[in-house]
Structure formats: structure tokens, C-alpha cells
Amino acid sequence: MNDHIKGMLKDALILFVITLSAGLILGVVYQVTKEPIATQKAKVKQEACKEVFSEAESFEIVQTAQAEDEWVLQKSELGFEAVDIDEVMKALDADNNMLGYVITVTDHEGYSGDIQFMLGIGEGGTLNGISILSISETAGLGMRAEEVLKPQFADKQVDFFEYTKSGAQRDNQIDAISGATITTNAVTNGVNAGLYYFRTFLNTNIMEGGSGNE
């Protein structure tokens, strides 16, 4: 075996050891951090639920397979093709009585990507408010959604929202973020999708047991 081949084998062995070591270290880091990360995610989710449904004592995930299938079929026709309904939870009081729903939606048409938020909707259809879970819009523009948009959705009972650039005058109108129409449209459309999902699939089928989706 000449020196050239010996050198290649040595380099390959060193590379293998480095790769194996890195893999083992990453595996250990993942095992150590996965539980704290899961705990932190659960904490953030619980806080977001309480933000949109402060009177609820607990939240229970609702299995809505049939509703989800129907949603996928209908959403494009309704103008909600960019919106996913990620999760639906019942909001329950201390005696396990139904107070309403918390719906998590993701709108994929934000200026910089996905915007995910929760809606809290009472049984009567009043939107308690929204809680933004993740957003990565432009600093100083779309990132003002928390400050500008979120408060405007609180405690409203309307069929749908629309945004305006000339000053909201009706209960269902939202003042757009200046210079961030795309972000405004994404959040508004996501809220409207959540309201539609509530009216169409939750407030009839599930609450009345019509489809047996739970």
C-alpha cells in the first residue's frame, strides 16, 4: 500500500470519527433539550389559550376529521386557500361546561411567510380576540400586527372583518397597518377563515352533535 492510499484512508477515518462524534453529540443534545422545549411550547400554548379565553379553566382538543376534510374541499372557493386550520380546542369552565372554542390557524400569505395565531370564540359567536403565536414580518411594518391589529379584533361579533386604509367606521372594519397591507390582509383573512370554520363546522355540527366529528 503506497503512501497516497494510506493518506486517503487516514483522512476518511478522521472524517468518519468526526461525523460520528458530531452525530452522537447532536443526539445527546436533542435528548437533553426535547423535554424542556416541549414543556416551554406547552406553556406558551396554554398562555395563548388563556389570552383569548381568560374565563376558561381548561382546554380540550377536538377531533374534527370530517370537518377538516370538508374545509380543505371548500376553502379555495371561499378565498381561504392560503389558510390552514391547525387545531381546534374546546374552552371549558371549572365544571367542564362548554364556553366556546379556541381555533389555531396559519395563514401562509404573510409578507415574510407564515403567520400563526389563535382565535377565541364564545358559543354565541363573539370573537374574544386573537393571540399571535408566530410571525416574522418586516420590523416596523408587519411586525406591528401585535400592536395595531390584535386589539381591533377583541370582543367583536361580526360575520367577517374587512380592512380599510381610511379609518374604520363600522364594527367589522379594521384599520390596516400603514405600509403593511399584505400582513393586514393575511391576518384579517385568517380571522375570517376561523370565524367561518366556527359557524360552519363547530357551531352546528359539533355543538349539536350533527356530524359526530368529535
From TrEMBL:
<feature type="transmembrane region" description="Helical">
    <location>
        <begin position="12"/>
        <end position="32"/>
    </location>
</feature>
<comment type="subunit">
    <text>The complex is composed of six subunits: RnfA, RnfB, RnfC, RnfD, RnfE and RnfG.</text>
</comment>
<keyword id="KW-1278">Translocase</keyword>
<keyword id="KW-0288">FMN</keyword>
<dbReference type="InterPro" id="IPR010209">
    <property type="entry name" value="Ion_transpt_RnfG/RsxG"/>
</dbReference>
<keyword id="KW-0597">Phosphoprotein</keyword>
<keyword id="KW-0813">Transport</keyword>
<keyword id="KW-0812">Transmembrane</keyword>
<keyword id="KW-0472">Membrane</keyword>
<feature type="domain" description="FMN-binding">
    <location>
        <begin position="110"/>
        <end position="198"/>
    </location>
</feature>
<comment type="function">
    <text>Part of a membrane-bound complex that couples electron transfer with translocation of ions across the membrane.</text>
</comment>
<keyword id="KW-1003">Cell membrane</keyword>
<protein>
    <recommendedName>
        <fullName>Ion-translocating oxidoreductase complex subunit G</fullName>
        <ecNumber>7.-.-.-</ecNumber>
    </recommendedName>
</protein>
<dbReference type="InterPro" id="IPR007329">
    <property type="entry name" value="FMN-bd"/>
</dbReference>
<keyword id="KW-0285">Flavoprotein</keyword>
<feature type="modified residue" description="FMN phosphoryl threonine">
    <location>
        <position position="181"/>
    </location>
</feature>
<dbReference type="Pfam" id="PF04205">
    <property type="entry name" value="FMN_bind"/>
</dbReference>
<keyword id="KW-1133">Transmembrane helix</keyword>
<keyword id="KW-0249">Electron transport</keyword>
<comment type="similarity">
    <text>Belongs to the RnfG family.</text>
</comment>
